[in-house]
Design goal:
seven-stranded antiparallel beta sheet, Jelly Rolls, 7 helices, four-stranded mixed beta sheet, alpha+beta
Length: 307
């Protein structure tokens, strides 16, 4: 496991991160307390996230990866000169957002929504759970990662106590660039209040430009907190926390935690990961993300109001 002082220079959204010890660090592994629900809840309240290293069966995760890389190859994303499992992309593949690759995909559906992973959330919540039917599948080619944001603006019409599971389908080095979270940011409601409760799919019916944009399926508010991770860290305090991930790891966090990702600085490799969401079954769920064909951020998911 790397320590803060041994980390290489890291980059996010095109910016070289400040590598000072008070500005960057490594995620805390909570696998040592995976069976201690009270301690998991204490750490989650304090840290805003839980990192479970090696909690899932590595072979099952790699089997799910194989199902995804075969579908990516069929979508003409991969370089056929290499084994599909290696995830070597064609030049210019860039950001590939293909949630449809998880539909009718038994290996991914089994991994995410049966067995060990949902059982973790049942124990953590202390009751039966629901999950979104929509799965965010990303295959990120060389280039910029995801900019800093919270998840609530994208999925806040139900409970606000649901949790994201970020899961890598393969080993992710610092060069390939995985998830990073901003330490303690979930407690900075003084900075988040006017941002985090906004709905990316809400628009002002009485403002013609917003109404026209909504009809075209566009956003008046994109949900992005900033395009500069350094500015965000300097404003919020805390450290950006990340690590090198392996197949079998996952990170879970709440709706108020600021997070982003490192850039993919490889020559031609895809970083494949998914976001799935879990919540207490007793609490309301965001209608945009459930059902056979969830509307998501399409025009069907837009909601007008008088501003």
């Amino acid at each position: 496991m790397s320590t803060a002082t041994s980390l290489p220079q890291l980059y996010s959204f095109g910016h070289a991160l400040d590598m000072a010890d008070d500005k960057i660090g490594v995620l805390r592994d909570s696998c040592d307390v995976a069976d201690d629900v009270a301690e998991l809840q204490r750490r989650f309240a304090k840290d805003g996230y839980l990192y479970l290293k090696g909690y899932l069966d590595r072979d099952e995760v790699l089997g799910a990866r194989a199902s995804l890389t075969e579908r990516l190859a069929a979508a003409d994303v991969l370089d056929d000169a290499h084994p599909h499992l290696d995830g070597i992309c064609k030049p210019g593949s860039g950001y590939v957002f293909k949630p449809e690759l998880t539909n009718n995909n038994p290996a991914v559906q089994k991994l995410l929504y049966t067995g060990r992973l949902p059982e973790f959330y049942r124990r953590f919540f202390g009751e039966e759970i629901s999950h979104y039917d929509f799965t965010w599948l990303r295959a990120i080619g060389p280039g910029k990662g995801t900019n800093p944001h919270c998840d609530l603006p994208y999925m806040g019409r139900g409970t606000h106590r649901h949790m994201t599971c970020w899961l890598p389908y393969g080993d992710i080095s610092f060069e390939l660039g995985g998830l990073m979270v901003l330490e303690g940011s979930h407690r900075r409601m003084d900075l988040l209040e006017h941002y985090v409760y906004r709905d990316v799919d809400a628009f002002c019916e009485n403002k013609p430009k917003e109404a026209d944009a909504a009809k075209a399926g566009k956003w008046a508010f994109t949900g992005t907190l900033s395009h500069n991770p350094l500015v965000v860290r300097n404003k919020f305090g805390g450290r950006w926390l990340t690590t090198e991930f392996r197949a079998g790891d996952f990170v879970t966090f709440g709706m108020f935690l600021v997070h982003a990702s490192l850039d993919n600085r490889t020559e031609n490799r895809l970083r494949i990961s998914s976001d799935s969401r879990y919540q207490r079954a007793s609490e309301p769920i965001d209608e945009r993300w459930v059902g056979l064909n969830p509307p998501g951020h399409t025009t069907a998911g837009k909601r007008g109001r008088i501003c």
